[in-house]
Amino acid sequence: MPYFSAYDGTRLAYRTDGDGDPLVCLPGGPADSRYLGDLGGLSAHRRLIVTDLRGTGRSAIPEDVTSYRCDRLVDDVEALRAHLGLTRMDLLGHSGGANIAVRYAARYPGNVGRLALITPGPAAVGITVAARMRREAARLRSDEPWFPAAFDALSAITEGTGSDWEAIAPFLWGRWDAAARRHHAESRPGNAEAVAGFGAEGAFDPEATRAALAAFGAPVLLLAGEFDLNTPPEAAAEFAGLFPDASFVVQPGAGHYPWVDDPDGFVATAAAFLR
């Protein structure tokens, strides 16, 4: 696995998969990037350059824990671009990684060719996902055998009376089968300090970010999952509306990890956008 040096000297890891034009991929979590895999086979169309965020996977733990903040992770993305020798790069962010991607696009708009935001976390742009949206997305799964217990746990969480996040995990996949369970185990964050620091005070500046994105001229794909409890389509559509040139797509039958639920459908959409 190759490495590069961040702005503060922290040793950061990344991996490559596939051939073709490079696509820099930012994981959510912050979690070990292995959960992205080859994004359902997208590596057949692009050379994926998948970074481990600082303190996760094979990247080193930084001396300064405030460097886990989302806005400071932008500096790591810029260091990776320089290390790769790319004048401009296509950038993909999943979930929390989309927050890093949009903050990067706001700060370095000329360095981004195309921007793909996959079931994106919306904190960086100040979009609040209402409890109503989550419950509406959850009710689409009412025929599932696990639904009653999972929905009770979700109701308790949204009402502030519960915190059993593990119980609502089935809502994040289009099918809660053995493959989804394995993927769930791989996608869980492992560095609690990195998770806590990601959204610490100062990590986000929604007003400034939204203003910068309103002038962002590059093409943007915003892909939502029909069943996604994390960023339901209604919230994702609002996110897409912040860009002058955004394509908004809802992948049917998909949750928060659309390349797992329907690899062919996901790759067809992503590859067409990135072509």
Keywords:
10 helices, 8-stranded mixed β-sheet, 275 residues, globular, Rossmann fold, 8 strands, single chain, 16% strand, alpha/beta
Describe the structure.
By secondary structure, this protein is α/β, with parallel strands linked by helices. The protein has one domain (3-130, 192-274): Alpha/Beta hydrolase fold, catalytic domain (Rossmann fold, 3-Layer(aba) Sandwich), CATH 3.40.50.1820. It is built from ten helices and eight strands. It has helices at 70-84, 96-107, 131-139, 147-158, 178-187, 192-198, 206-213, 233-240, 258-261, 263-274, and strands at residues 3-5, 11-17, 22-26, 47-51, 89-94, 112-118, 220-225, 246-251. α8 (233-240) links the parallel β7 and β8. α2 crosses α7. The longest helix is centred in the N-terminal third of the chain and has 15 residues, at 70-84. It is globular, with a radius of gyration of 18 Å. The mean pLDDT is 96.
